[in-house]
């Protein structure tokens, strides 16, 4: 995979996702953030790609279905509390952005 643009970045963040990452999505007027600890990385047509799997029962899944894109963010150690909250609470029940102090 030498010579493929972005491979160094993929290698670097592969280790970070094991520590937890935020998946953020907005579709229409709905928005949610959830914690992920896994992802599939690869190369498609010489471009780096990432895939995530979200259960159909999750609130985030509904929003993803109507969205054009999503964002994955890799927080520092100072966001452990927020990673825990976003991985254990549903956006159906509370505004995780407000609870975590995130701005959009």
Considering the chains and any ligands shown, give keywords for the structure.
104 residues, alpha+beta, Pnp Oxidase, Chain A, 4 helices, 31% helix, 26% strand
Sheet-strand content, in percent, reads 25-35%
The main pleated sheet reads as: 3 strands, antiparallel
CATH topology group: Pnp Oxidase, Chain A
- What low-confidence regions span 5 or more consecutive residues with pLDDT below 50? none
| Ends apart, CA distance between termini | 36 Å
* Broad shape: globular
Mean pLDDT: 87
CATH class: Mainly Beta
User: From the 3D coordinates, which CATH architecture would you assign?
Assistant: Roll
- Element-level helix/strand string: HEEEEHEHH
> What's the helix count?
4
How would you classify the helix and strand content by structural class?
A: alpha+beta
Strand order of the largest sheet: 2-1-5
The CATH superfamily is known as: Electron Transport, Fmn-binding Protein, Chain A
Radius of gyration: 15 Å
Number of domain modules: 1
